[in-house]
UniProtKB/TrEMBL annotation:
Keywords: Cell inner membrane, Cell membrane, Membrane, Transmembrane, Transmembrane helix. One of its GO terms (cellular component) is plasma membrane. GO terms for molecular function: glycolipid transfer activity; lipopolysaccharide transmembrane transporter activity. NCBIfam families: LptC_YrbK. Gene3D superfamilies: Lipopolysaccharide (LPS) transport protein A like domain (2.60.450.10). The keyword Membrane applies. The chain crosses the membrane at residues 7-25. This is LPS export ABC transporter periplasmic protein LptC.
Length: 180
């Protein structure tokens, strides 16, 4: 097929228009700005997994709903499962919030900590802070710790998942019971 010279200016004009249109649609000005995007996102059946550099699961966070506003995240019925040296920990609550992409999580209302491998061990409180990087749990609220032998209460808790150190302080009391 041979293009006649008198059609060449029309073809070139059409090509320039198409290139202009494609570049315009790709330009940042044509994309919605942050202020135009929805500032409030609700995710049903939220789930997030984090892996280490070797591809091993570090923790999983699930929730019935997650509400995201900028850097703030509010979780309903959250469950966090974390693993350190083959020991699994499960933290559940009615609510949780995080302001830094789940690096620090504040659990609230009916907070429960369990080791699935050790069904007899449970910890309950109304408020708990979890530092994901340090794998450290802190609570300044009354805490109830139960295992097959003891029931302990305290007004403060520090639990280091990496060393398995549990520190109860401020008004610690307890009772011993038989495992019969």
């Amino acid at each position: 097929m041979r293009i006649r010279r008198r059609h060449t200016p029309y073809i070139l004009t059409a090509l320039v228009a198409v290139i202009f249109l494609v570049n315009y649609l790709r330009s940042p000005n044509s994309q919605p700005s942050d202020s135009q995007l929805s500032e409030h996102v609700v995710i049903q059946q939220f789930s997030q997994k984090q892996f280490d550099e070797n591809g091993i699961l570090v923790h999983r966070v699930e929730a019935a709903t997650a509400e995201v506003n900028d850097h703030q995240m509010e979780l309903t019925q959250p469950v966090l499962e974390t693993l350190h040296q083959q020991i699994s920990w499960r933290i559940s609550a009615a609510r949780a919030s995080s302001q830094d992409h789940l690096k620090h999580i504040q659990f609230s209302e009916q907070v429960e900590i369990r080791q699935p491998q050790q069904q007899a061990l449970s910890l309950t409180t109304e408020s708990l802070s979890y530092d994901v990087a340090q794998k450290r749990l802190l609570s300044n609220q009354p805490v109830l710790l139960k295992d097959q032998f003891d029931t302990l209460t305290a007004n403060r808790l520090m639990l280091d998942i990496t060393s398995l150190d549990i520190e109860l302080s401020d008004g610690v009391s307890g009772t011993q019971h038989d495992n019969k």
